[in-house]
Amino acid sequence: MGTRFCVAALLALSLGACNLLLVDDANTFDPDKREEIEKPPAPMNPGDVEAQVYLDVRLSARSQPGDNVVVDQAMDVLRERTALMTVQMTPPYPENFWLVFELCNKSFLAEVPIVVRTRVFREIEGQAKEELGMFSNAAPIGHVALGKRAEFDVFAGLDALPESLLVTSQIDVYLLPEDTDIESIDLDTVSAPPDKTGAVIGPPVRINIGERAADL
Question: What is the model's pTM?
Fold first, then answer.
């Protein structure tokens, strides 16, 4: 009888222990079963636009290549756009040299009005960086179509051609308040706070004009 009592007591203790384990296991935190906490989507920032816009640069129909103007256009194969353009000139030098700058964008939705301003610069060694011009475009809230192009004569205003010059470009991005009426603002002068402003650098164009400067 004593033996039966011991066995029964041990069995009861075992069942109690199992029940304790089951209770503990049920209350253990399981990261796979936790409820998802929904977070509000982050507001649109300049980086969202920077990732969707870019500049393409090419020779204008007014300045075709030839024996005296050799153009090497390096392509970004993955992105299917110009990465670098190099131009080698020999006499007779052209009086003008026109380049086309095209603002392109992928399809995306704007949560706020957007203004993009493209600026083109000329850099000559020993001289201050000079802005050749700009063009702007804007998009309201919704589907964005910012495509626009402009041509610039990168020899404009030069009395003589240097041995080399560099043409650079930049897209300035501005995110505006939701209630902005883009039809009523000056796209060429509008600005935004630093945290609502971004920039995208265009492909550089290096123009080599021989060993000596050439008079125009």
Answer: 0.77
